[in-house]
Structure formats: C-alpha cells, structure tokens
Design brief:
By secondary structure, this protein is α+β, with helices and mostly antiparallel strands. It contains 13 helices and 43 strands.
C-alpha cells in the first residue's frame, strides 16, 4: 500500500550554504511552501538575494514493513537542490519548476533522522532561467511529501513520473476513443488497469513497462470550457501499490486558415498568460491561491492560458483540466541562449512532458520564449531547438511544438521552421510603434506565409490603476491608456480568426525586481488584475465583455473621480446589446453597440453616473474640478499635450505626424530626418548600431510616425515643434 504524508511542517531555514550544528538553534522555523525572496524579490532595485540557502528537518524513522521503501517527493525547489540525509548526499536536481523524488530508505537510521536540503538560485551558465523579465525566487516553494511504497511499486524516480501514461485518440467521427494506458514499475507483478468500467490485466516486459488498450464507445468528449469531462485510469499491482490519472478525450488541430479546431469545430483560443507569483507570497502558493487565479480567469471568460515561462504546479494543471482551459506549457529556455545549458533544456523538457503528459488541458509544448532577444541565431542555438523539437515529438506524438518569438525576429529566420507552429510577442503601441503596426505585422505575415500556423503569444501595456487621464497616450502608465490599447487589440484579434491562439500579457501583475517604473518598484504592471489580486483593472471588464456569457455592465474610470474637463467621456463595457446611462438618476441616453459604449457627459459639480442593462448596473462618482488632480499622473511626467494634431498642419506638406519611411523616401525630408537621426546616433553609441544592424527593427521604425519616435526618445516639445515647422515647408509632391 502506498502512503503519502505531507512533510511541510517544522523545517528550519537559514541563508547558509549547508548545515552548521553550532548555529542550528538560531535558524528560522518555516512551514513549506517557502521562498526567501518573498519581499526582496518584489521591491525593485534588482538586488534580491540569490545564493545557496539550507533547509533542515528532523524526523523519526517511518515505520516500514518488509521490503518497503521510503521516498521524498520535492514538488518545486528553485533552482538547484542537493539532498542529504544523516550526512549522506542522495541526489542533485537542476531545475526549479519540476518535481523530483529520491529514495531515502538506505540512509535512514533508527531514532531521529536529519534531512538537509540546500537550494541555490544564484547566477550560473548552465541552469535556466538566467536572464528574463521576472524574479527568480529561491526556495522549497511547492512543498515536500514523504512516500512509502511496497518493494514492488510503480516507477517513482524517472523524471518525476506519475508512473502511468494515458494516450486517448478520438476517431474522426468523434464517437469512439482508443485509449492506451502505459505503466512502469519496479519489481515483478501483473498490472490491473481499469478505464471507463473496463478492466484488463497485463504482464509487464523485462523493463517493467506494460501497456493496455481500451475502446470507449459513445465517448464523452473533453470539450473545452463548455464541457470539460474527465475520465480516470487506474493501475494496480498485487503488492497493493496503485496509481491513477485523469484524462480527457478530445480531438484538436491548428489550421493556418481556420485557427484552432476542437472536436471538429472552430474554437478560437483567446486568453491570457499567467505568472505564478503573488504580492507578499512570491511563488510560495497554496491550493487556495491557485484556485483563486483560475476563478479570475474563468470569470473573464478566457478559454486558454499560456503558462509562462516554466512548468507550473500540478494543482494548477488539474484546475485547468477541470475548467476546460486549453494550455500552452513551456520550459524556461528564455531570452538568452547559454551554450552550456543545452543539457538542462533537455532535462527540463523531459520532466515537463513526463509529469504533465496526462493533462488534457495541454495542447502544445513551448520550446523557448524570446530566445533571440539577447542571442544571435547561430548554429548552436538552432541545434538546441532542433534537439528539443525532436525530443518533444519522440515523447509525445499527439501535441505540436511551438515558440514565442520576440518582435524583432525576422519572419524568414530559419528558427521559425523548427517548431510545428509559431507565435509572436508584439508590443507595438507600448514599447515602440503604433497600435496599427500589430495589424500590419500579422496581415503581412499571413499573406507571405499562408501555410504557416501563427498566433499572438504576448501583447500588453503597463497600467497603474492610480493613474488616469482624459487624453491617454502610450507610455503614461494610466489605466485609461490600457483601455485604449486593449480595445484596439481585441478588435484586431476578432477580425483575424486564423490566429490559432492569443494570450494577453499578463493576467496578473507580477514581480520583476529589475523594474522601477509606473510608480511602483519591482513590478511588471501589464496585468489585467493587480499583483495582490485585489483590483480588477478596467480592461479586465473589456475582455469579459468580449468573452463571457454572464450578463454584466461595467463603467470605466471609477478611479478617475476628479475631472477638470467640462464634458467628460463615460466609457461602458458590457456583453449586452444595449446600455442606458443615467446621470444623477435621470436618463441621459440609450446606446446600442458591441462591447464598448461611449457617452459624452457634461459635468458641473459632483455627479452619480449609472449604467444599466437588464438587471445589471454599475455606478461611479465623478466630480468637476478646476485643475487636474496631480495624483492621477505619474510623478515626473509632464501633463499630456496633444501635439500637432493633423488639423493644425497643412496636410499637403510633411509633418512629424508622417511615418518615418515616407519621410525618408523624399529627398529633402529624408535629408532632414537623416541628419536628425545621425545626431541621435552619435549620442546613443552601441544602441544605435544595434538598430542599424537589425533589418527588422529598421523596417518597424519606418512604419512608425516620427512624432511617436521622438516622444519615445524623450525629445523636448520645443525640438519637436522646430522640426515640424521645417517639415511643413516641404510639399509632399515631387
């Protein structure tokens, strides 16, 4: 009989590289899950402690029957762990996001036993991740279990295997499913396997591998969020050991013209990415926090999650199975290729697939994320990706491979031909460029490569809910601009159903200790929900309007109370066909539309604004003030000025509102812009050289308006005005 005992209590912890009996009495008592970076990994400065720390636990020898074994199961130890029992080193594990187990039977002694685990998250060149825009928390952050098993038992050691592998294949007519159940074991004994009321007994081969095949008639499909039905496969040995796995029967495909297809129908994957950490907790989460995250995502109506950028907790995959969320699972091969890290990418991928294979929610394996952001596309990088791709296909014949590619990667790069399907991370309209360039990029890609499956793996804009603006613009960190940004992106996505999957970056704000922007330290604020999960930002409700079937209405700008403008825009999000707006209890207007409703409201004092549709309503308070409230603007940022509207310029002449490429194509305008860029390059050094030597970036910049480039570069208003006056003297003809 297998027993599983929670081993999370009564640990001692110190930031020390090993056990020291003399100091042990002064060590901190902790309960797992635990991370030592819960505070300093979230406060900015990029100075959180990375090093080797030690966890110790004293425990009595477990009672073991004849031939029984004791194992420890570590669900997550970031990033490299070594395990010692009573002074004997038992194992070393490299990779902070997957489970591993170790047999402790031979090292046990009578009476008390001392378990020592060192965990290291320090900088190195072999274990991923090492360079990325998130905090690399250290610790035993997912808990530990003590397992006891009989001498004949299902496999425990091999890459953290569950010991059972279930492969369902649904027929084209969607009426039957052929299900193969494989098991691996230590010791001899026939295996009894049960699936959907059918039982078979199989004798394993000499390697301990057994396989049983079943056919499920009138199969109940796992049908996404509409009906995520789960079956259970159970395997048992005469020794009393048993394992089980839930699985789902579904048939899916990615088509370059039709997008994602689930069980024979079009099923566009539209959802979010998720980092696992939380304010004040770091990555040391319990089942409660995982369940809360799923609830947020389901409330919004998403049907897919990109689980970035590493293997997530098994509890979370279980929740995705139950909720019907289609998932992208990946390893932390990210940003920077490390020549000495190939073995680690392969081992982390083996663990990911071995441990997560049975989850029906997973529809693809991610090879890497933005790996060319800090690395050139050379043969070593390509070879590493080919090895990963081959490994995925060897281990799993049912799921495709994919990559998330950084925006500046050339679309004719050879790396794009390695995975089965691809996606791009684009941030036009935030980090650079204009919102429309997202549309242009995908339309050009789709036209040039009509036989390639392409998706949208990251897009987003940072927003601090404290910051508000009546005239939002890129880079102001306002919740108002985040609304504008996502309104454009959602409309763009809805018009392109051939995008196999789209994932907002990010569902939740998360820790990136190197960041210091948008009024917060150590946070990436692109989330639709704040880091502490306390606040749904307004764009959360925009996505709910597009994706959720639950009737609702939401007025944006509830945190924008003090308004200096005499006529203010009231924006409403709803999934209902019509919304009625009331001001101080009196009906102002009724409007029909699709998801986004905009009303112009005159304000003179303090007003109660209410939006109603059916039985749903939303209320905010606005107040007319004489001067803008400085609390709504990022400190140090000048008030937004709508410079050089087209109406103020002669449209027959060039202006800073024209695209850089159009200006460069004209002899006189191009010479002026070229001189300006040469002066800027002289002051930018290596950065300018990087742009000049990257054809993709050059083309992207050519599509940007000159005003957006100048503002992004921090040009003064006076400089822009002077350049605009000069360009206004140049006719566009000839």
């Amino acid at each position: 009989m297998r027993t599983v005992t929670n081993f999370n209590d009564n640990w001692r912890f110190a930031r020390a590289a090993g056990f020291d009996a003399a100091l042990y009495k002064d060590w901190q008592t902790v309960t797992l899950p635990h991370t030592w970076n819960a505070e300093d990994g979230q406060d900015g400065g990029n100075d959180y402690w990375r090093g080797t720390a030690t966890y110790c636990k004293s425990f009595a020898r477990p009672e073991l029957g004849p031939g029984e074994q004791a194992w420890l199961e570590f669900l997550g130890a970031a990033m490299t762990a070594e395990v010692f029992l009573n002074g004997h080193k038992l194992t070393r594990h490299e990779g902070g996001y997957s489970a591993f187990r170790v047999d402790i039977t031979g090292a046990l002694q009578d009476g008390d036993n001392l378990l020592v685990v060192t965990v290291d998250n320090s900088d190195n060149d072999t274990v991923y991740p090492q360079k990325a825009d998130f905090t690399f928390y250290g610790g035993l952050y997912r808990g530990v279990n003590l397992l006891t098993v009989p001498s004949v038992h299902f496999e425990l050691a091999h890459y953290g295997t569950p010991g059972i592998k279930v492969t369902p294949v649904v027929a084209e007519d969607l009426k039957t499913a052929a299900v193969t159940v494989e098991t691996w074991q230590q010791g001899e004994g026939a295996v009894t396997v049960t699936v959907a009321g059918q039982t078979k007994t199989v004798v394993p081969d000499t390697d301990g591998h057994a396989a049983a095949e079943f056919v499920i008639e009138n199969v109940h499909l796992w049908d996404g969020v509409d009906d995520p039905y789960l079956y259970t496969a159970t395997a048992a040995l005469p020794s009393g050991d048993s394992v089980s796995a839930r699985f789902g029967c579904r048939r899916f495909a990615m088509d370059p013209q039709k997008g994602f297809i689930l069980n024979g129908r079009s099923y566009p994957l539209r959802g979010v990415s998720r980092h696992q950490d939380r304010k004040g907790l770091g990555n040391a989460l319990t089942a409660k926090e995982h369940a809360e995250d799923i609830a947020f995502i389901r409330e919004m109506g998403a049907n897919t999650i990109r689980l970035a950028h590493y293997q997530h907790a098994q509890e979370f995959y279980d929740l995705c199975d139950e909720a019907g969320l289609c998932c992208w699972a990946e390893i932390p091969y990210i940003t920077m290729h490390m020549p000495n890290g190939r073995a680690n990418t392969l081992s982390q991928m083996r663990e990911l697939i071995t441990q997560c294979y049975n989850h029906p929610c997973i529809v693809c394996w991610g090879l890497s994320n933005e790996i060319t952001a800090a690395s050139t596309v050379n043969e070593d990088l390509l070879s590493n990706h080919r090895a990963l791709n081959d490994l995925c296909h060897e281990m799993d014949k049912t799921r495709p491979t994919t990559m998330a590619n950084v925006f500046m990667l050339e679309t004719d790069s050879p790396i794009l031909t390695i995975p089965d399907i691809n996606s791009y991370n684009l941030y036009f309209g935030w980090y650079l460029g204009d919102l429309e360039q997202n549309d242009e990029f995908f339309d050009e890609y789709h036209a040039q490569y009509p036989d390639r499956v392409i998706g949208f793996s990251e897009y987003g804009a940072d927003a601090n809910p404290a910051y508000q603006s009546p005239a939002p613009e890129k880079g102001d960190y306002t919740e108002s601009y985040q609304c504008v940004y996502h309104e454009h992106m959602l409309a763009m996505i809805e018009a392109r159903p051939w995008l196999w999957a789209t994932h907002v970056w990010n569902m939740f704000d998360f820790a990136a200790d190197g960041r210091d922007e948008g009024g917060k330290h150590g946070e990436n604020q692109k989330g639709l929900v704040t880091f502490d999960r306390a606040t749904r930002k307004d764009p959360f409700y925009l996505y709910k309007a597009y994706w959720s079937k639950e009737p609702f209405v939401h007025i944006c700008g509830g945190r924008y109370v003090d308004r200096p403008e005499p006529v203010t825009e009231i924006k409403v999000y709803s999934n209902q066909p019509a919304v009625t707006l009331y001001v101080d209890g009196k009906e102002l207007a009724r409007q029909e539309g699709h998801c986004v409703f905009k009303f112009q409201v005159s304000i003179s004092g303090e007003h109660t604004i209410q939006a109603c549709t059916g039985s749903c309503h939303s209320v905010i308070l606005v107040r007319k003030v004489s001067e803008p409230n400085p609390a709504y603007t990022l400190p140090g940022r000048a008030a937004v000025v709508n410079w050089f509207d087209q109406g103020e310029n002669d449209p027959t002449c060039f202006s800073v509102n024209d695209k850089l490429g159009d200006l460069q194509a004209h002899p006189r305008a191009g010479a002026i812009v070229g001189q300006m860029m040469a002066q800027a390059s002289a002051s930018r050094g290596d950065v300018a050289d990087a742009v000049k030597d990257n054809p993709g970036l050059v083309r992207m910049m050519a599509r940007m308006t000159l005003i957006s480039l100048l503002k992004q570069a921090g040009a003064a208003k006076e400089q822009i005005e002077q350049l605009n006056r000069v360009l206004q003297t140049i006719k566009k003809e000839g």
